[in-house]
Amino acid sequence: TLKDLIHLHHVENKIHFIGEISEQEKFWYLNNCEGFVFPSISEGFGIPPVEAMRLGKPVFLSKATSLPEIGGEIAYYFNDFNSENMAKTILEGIKHFKHKNRKEESIEWSNQFTWEKSAKSYKEVYLKVLEKH
After folding, report:
1. Residues 64/42, Cβ–Cβ less than 8 Å
2. Rounded CA gap, 93 and 33, in Å?
C-alpha cells in the first residue's frame, strides 16, 4: 500500500493524508502552494488544475485523458512516472515558471474554462446528436 511505501522510505514526516477538505481549505492550499501536481491517469476533466491556474500557480500534469487540453502550453507534463523524473520536472518547471513570470499567463489561460462555456458546449453536442436521430 501507499502507507507501507511511505514507511519503507522513512518519509512519514513529509507526507500527510489530510482527508476531505472544505472549499475554504482548498482555496488556502491552492493559494499557498508553490505548484499543483496532478499526475492523474483517469481524470475525466481537469477542474482542479484549472482552479490552480486561476490562482496563477504552475501545474504539473500527466499526458492522459483531457489534461493536455486543459493545461495547454502553460502546464508542465510528466513524460513518465519515475519519481526522479517527476521531481526533476517539478523543480525545473517551478524555476521556469518563476523566471518567465508566467503567473498572469496561467490566470489568462484558465479564464477560458467556465461553467457557462462548458454548459453551452454540452448543449451544442446534445442538440447535434438529437438532430441525427
Report:
1. yes
2. 14
Question: Which of 13, 72, 59 has the alpha carbon at shortest distance from 33?
Answer: 59
E-strand ranges in 1-133 read 36-38, 59-61, 76-77
- Rounded to an integer, what distance in angstroms lies between the CA atom of residue 82 and that of residue 97? 22
Cβ atoms of 113 and 70 closer than 8 Å: yes
Dihedral Cα 119, 123, 129, 130, nearest 10 deg: 140
User: Where would I find the beta strands (DSSP E) of 59-103?
Assistant: 59-61, 76-77
Q: Are 57 and 28 in contact (CB under 8 A)?
A: no
- Map grid coordinates 523524473 to a residue: 85
Residue pLDDT, tens place only, 53-105: 999 999 999 998 889 999 999 999 999 999 999 999 999 999 999 999 999 99
pTM here is 0.80
The number of residues making up the chain comes to 133
Place of cell 476531505: 20
Taking the CA atoms of residue 62, residue 66, residue 72 and residue 75 in that order, the dihedral angle to the nearest 10 degrees is -30
